[in-house]
Structure formats: structure tokens, C-alpha cells
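So, can you check?
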Amino acid sequence: MNTPRRIAIVGANRIPFCRAHTVYADLSNQDMMSAAMSGLVDRFGLKGEKLGDVSLGAVIKHTAQWNLARESTLGSGLAAETPAFDIQRACGTSLESAILIGNKIALGQIDAGIAGGVDTISDTPIVYPDDYRKLLMKSYRARSTTDRLKPWLGIRPRHFKPVTPGVVEPRTGLSMGESCELMAKEWNISRQAQDELALASHNNLARAYDDGFYDGLVSPFMGIEQDNNLRRGGSMEKLAKLKTVFDRSDTGTLTAGNSTPLTDGAGCVLMASEEWARQRGLDVLAYLTYARVAAVDFVGGEGLLMAPAYAVSEMLQQANLRLQDFDLYEIHEAFAAQVLCTLAAWESPDFCRDRLGRSEPLGAIDRNKLNVHGGSVASGHPFGATGSRLIGILSKALHTTNARRGLISVCTGGGMGVTAIFEAA
């Protein structure tokens, strides 16, 4: 095959995203991922069908979930002969999984596959101190009963104190929120601007649900039909009353209202060649046409969540497009401040010249085209699932409106970014 095939998005499905320790508190990653996939299988009549491959991932999972993708696939209703593999690229996991499945389709290696992801904070693995682990392993490796018992003489009460789970960057010791506070200060992003974006996120999500946009994208699960982080009837006044959470001084700007909450959830996307979809009488919603990843030196001074600014710039050069050549922008709202920092960077002559190597700024986008069906601040952010949510939203919007082209941008832990371009069928 000399010419790559077009990568068709046929459909998507997710379960409602729920705040951690609420509705899905007793569920595992596999429970949620299987539910999301089962909904997709049922919607597109795939029960018992063998697909070319499945790529799924989670950021936080137990060691027992080493084969999460395969186990979730076996519980989805697909044929047992459908292979699957796990991946992980922090918050960009399911967008990256879609890129990988898309590449296999384009190269003719497979005709159809599923990409997706999941995460649960409610079922976070609890670990114990490393010296306790070493004690256990020393006992395990011993040859005699005496030698197996000797390490236990060193047991101390401190060994039974769990290590508190935390999502911090090992090289800086800062949480993502603390890192984003530094970015907000660097780019002079105001608290009011962040709250305005957060309010729009909730209002847009509420309107999209009320208009029926999420019908066919979200399967009811555990008695829940909508993301339970959605707040209706919000106002700038209510948001302004919230205290800052990462920098509690007078200069702090990030609050629980303009940041994504810890969230449980799962989502997936059905991708295929045009021929495969046509043979089954399935509509093609959109095509994945370009993708790009980037990383920044966040230890050396660049903002932890600024990599998408670089990835989008490189992707636009490859696609010979301008930033303004899009009808819809799906920019992951890890924090309202992150989105605003990225937009400010694209408008900055200095940043675009010195960091992106451009002769002029990328420029501003039409904010009326940004996250018009709700963003992560409103819906929540199960790390591994967010990319699939964005693909589902954008693909359906491209199929049901006059929009012709859309951009997805996701920042991730570790100073990385994953971006992609989708075009209407």
C-alpha cells in the first residue's frame, strides 16, 4: 500500500464523569472502562465482532491491572480474539491511543479499532514505605526459615503508615496546580479571567446536555446520566467567594471553581477505515488528519503545562494552516489558567519569536469557538479518559454542524502536550 488510508472516526462513548469518592467510589478502572466500551459495542452493533486492535490506558492503576486494556476488552462484548494493549501518556493518554490506532488504520495494519482511557481517584493504590517493601522482599528471597524470619525483627510501627498518594512532579516536587499558579503569575492571568472561563465551561456543558448534544455520546451508568460535577446556575459572584487552593496568599488565583476536580470516569472512540464503515452502513463523523506531541523543559524554567503551545505551532506548520483556520477548538481545561496562558502565548510576539521560532505571532482565536460544549472544568477530568471525551465532542460537532475543521489540545504531566486536527467527513 503506497497511499495512507484516511482515519475515520465512527463514534464515541463514555460514561458520565463523576467527582472522586462519589458515585463510582467502589468501582475499579476495569469496571468503568468495560462499561464505556460495552456502551460503544451495543450502540454500533459490534457484539461478538473481532476488531483489529484496542488501545486503552490509565494514569493511576493497581499492579494487578497490568493488562487493563485486554481485560476491559474481554468484558466489552467484543470477540475474545480482539487484541488490546495498554498505554500511558499522562492526561493525553486517550488522545495518544487514538493517534496510535489511527496510524495502524492509515498503514493498513488494521481496518478498525477502539481507543480510549479511564482513571479513578477513588480506587487509588495505597502503598507502604519503601523500606517495608525491601524488608518483605528480603524475607521472600531467603532460603531458610531462619533467614526468612530475620528481616521481620526490623519491623517498626512506621512501616504500617501508608504513603499518601499525590500527583506531584518528581523533579520539582510541585503539584500541577502549584505549577499552574507559577504560569498564571508569569503570564499575568487574572482571577477574574479564570473565573469567566470556568463559568462559561459550566454554562456550555449545561446547554449542550439540555440541547441533547450528548445523546449518543454518553451512556447512563450507575443511575447517573450527566457529569455530576456540572454546576447549573453559577455566577461570577459565587466563584469570587471561593478561596484559593494552591497559593493561599493574596497573589493566588487558582480555586476549586476554576480548576478541574479529581474525577472518575472512562471513555472510548471507534475508529476505522472508510471501507470498513461503509460495509457496515456506519456514518463517518470526522477524519483524524494531523497529530503532534511536544515536551518542554519545565525544570529549566518553562511552564509545566505549556507544551501544547509548541505542539500546535509545529502541527500547524506541518498542515500548512493558521491558528485561525478552525471552526472549533477543544482545549483541555486542566485549569482555566492553563488555557489562558496558552492563548496568551500564541498572541505574544516575543514567545512566538523566541520560543516557537516564528516571525510573527500565531494570533488570537475566536473565543466563541472554544469548548462550546463544555470543558474539563465543568465535566471533570479522569486523566486517561479526557482525550476520548474531546474526540467524541469534536467529531459529533463536525458531523452535525457546518463546522469543517477542529483542533484538540491537551496538556499533560511531565511537561508534555498532545494535539490533533480533525476534519469533517
Observations:
- The chain has a mean pLDDT of 97.
- The longest strand covers residues 263-272.
- Residues 191-210 form the longest helix (20 residues).
